[in-house]
Amino acid sequence: MKILNIGMIGFGTVGTGVYKVLQSFKNINIKKIAVKNINKKRNVENFDEKLLTSDAYEIVNNPEIDIVVEVSGGTDPTYDLLKTAINNGKHIVTANKELLAKKGSELFKLAQEKNVVILYEAAVAGGIPIIMPIKTILCANKLTKIAGILNGTTNYILTKMAEKDLSYETALKQAQELGYAETDPTGDVKGFDAAYKIAILASISFNKKIDINKIYKEGITKITEQDIKSAKELGYRIKLIALAQMSDKGEVDVRVHPMLVSKKHLLAKVNNATNSVMISGYPVGDLAFTGPGAGSEPTSSSVAGDILVLASELEASDKPIPLYVRNQTEIANQIDISETYNEYYISVTASNNPGAIGVAGTICGNNNINISTIMQKGINEDNTAEIVVITERSKESDVQNALKELLNTDCIKKINNLLRVMN
Q1: Average pLDDT, stretch 85-97?
Q2: CA dist 347 to 49, 56, 159, 301, Å?
Q3: Is-contact 53 38, C-beta < 8 A?
Q4: In Å, how far from its chain's centre is CA 152?
Q5: Multiple choice CATH, 4-126+296-324, 3.30.1360.120, 3.40.50.1950, 3.40.50.720, 3.40.50.970
Q6: Exposed/middle/buried for 131, CB within 10 Å: 0-12, 13-18, 19+?
Q7: d(Cα 325, Cα 287) in Å, to the nearest integer?
C-alpha cells in the first residue's frame, strides 16, 4: 500500500476536523502542519506538537510531501503558497472559495502544466457533494441554471426573522452568539461569500471563466421586519439566493441577492444554517442537493473525501485522471444586472391622498412594467401608507428608471425596498 504524505496549511476548526478523520486511514501520513500560532493549545487528543511549524513554505517546499491541504483561507500569502506547491509537483486539496473565485484560473492552468490536480469539494457547500457530481456523473449534461442557498449565516438570520419576528440586528446578534456569524459578518451578510461560491459553480457548470468582479452582489442588511411580513402575506419567504444561468445565446447571468421565493418552492423550506443547491440541465432535468453547508464535521468530510480520492488514484497511477483536471480557456460573456429580467417586489411609502396608487401604476406602465399584485398596509400617524407591489416579468433597467420617477413625484415619499422574485 502506497503511503501518501500530507502537509496541512491551517489547523483551525476545519483543519482539526480533517486531522481527526484521517487518523483512521493507514495510507495517509500527516507529515507537517503549518499554523500561525505554534504555541496555541490544540483540542486534539494525543497530538504530536512536533508536527507543527509556523513556516508554511516548509510544507510546500518539502520534497517528501505529496499533497498540500489548504484550510487556512484568504488569498495572501495563500496564493503564493499554493503556486509554489504546484510548481514543486504537489497536488492540492483546498476549501478556499475566495482564492478559487479570484485566482482559480491561474492556479488551474499551472496545475495542468505541472500534471497535478486541485480538488475543492469543500469550497462551495461544506458537506454537500456538488463539485464532483457536476464534474463526473453530470458531465454528459448541458447545465443551464444553478440556484441555491449557499450561505448558512444569512439563511439562519432570515429564518429567525421569519419564524420569531426578529429584527435583522437581533437575529444577527443571535447568530453571532451561536457561532453561525463572525464578529465581523460583512463577508456573509453583504453577499461576498455566496458570490465566491456561485462563481465556482458557474465556472465548472458552464465550463467558462467567471469574473468575480462582474457578479452583482447584494446582501440582506436592508431586509426589514415589514418586508418579511409582507412577503409572508403574499405567499413568499425571503432568501439570499445565489443564481447562475446561461441563455440560449450563451450569455451568462451570475448574481447574488435576496429574493422572494414561493412558500411552495423547495428553497423556501430550507431553514437555519442548511444549504441547498438546485441544478437544471439536459437531459437530467432538475436536481436538488441539500445538507449542512458549513462547520467542522461537514467541511472536513469533503476535504478528507478529496484526499482519499487522490490517494486512490495515485495508488493506481502517477497521472491524475482527466475528469479531475480543470481546463478552461473561454471567458464567459457575463451580462450586467441592468440587462436581466425578473419579477419584482417594490415597497414604497406614499402620501395617503387620492390617486397615489394611480400615479405609481401610470409610471410603471410608462416603463413597460405590468403590476400583478398591489397591497396597501394601513395608514401611519403622519398620514402616509406603505404600498407593496409585485410586478410581472420586467427588465431591471426599466424598473430602476421607474423608481427614480416615483421619487420625483409628490405622492411617493420613500422607496423602502426593491427585491426580486424567483420565477
Answers
A1: 97
A2: 58, 52, 21, 43
A3: yes
A4: 9
A5: 3.40.50.720
A6: buried
A7: 24
* Sign (positive or negative) of CA dihedral 165, 167, 170, 174: positive
Contacts of 404 (CB under 8 A, 6+ apart): none
The average pLDDT across 243-259 equals 97
The one-character DSSP state at 209 is B
CATH class of segment(s) 341-421: alpha beta
Catalytic positions, written as ranges? 197
Q: Is the separation of the CB atoms in 207 and 337 below 8 Å?
A: no
Quickly tell me which residue has 471567458 as its cell: 331
Give the domain ranges of the chain.
4-126+296-324, 131-292, 341-421
Q: How far apart, in whole angstroms, are the C-alpha atoms of residue 348 and residue 413?
A: 7
Cell of 13: 476548526
Domain range 131-292, CATH architecture: 2-Layer Sandwich (3.30)
- As a whole number, mean pLDDT of residues 116-143 equals 94
C-alpha cell at 205: 457548470
Tell me whether strands 394-395 and 341-351 are parallel, antiparallel or unpaired.
antiparallel
Question: In 3-state terms, what secondary structure has residue 125?
Answer: helix
Higher pLDDT, 293 or 406: 406
The whole-angstrom separation of Cα 303 and Cα 11 is 13
Q: Which three cell numbers stand for residue 371?
A: 403590476
DSSP one-letter code for 297: H
Q: What is the pLDDT of residues 309-339, one digit of tens each?
A: 999 888 877 666 666 666 677 999 999 999 9
3-state secondary structure of 360: helix
Enumerate the β-bridge partners of residue 390: 345, 373
User: Can you spell out the DSSP letters for 160-217?
Assistant: HHHHH---HHHHHHHHHHTTSS-SS-HHHHTSHHHHHHHHHHHHHHHTSB--GGGSEE
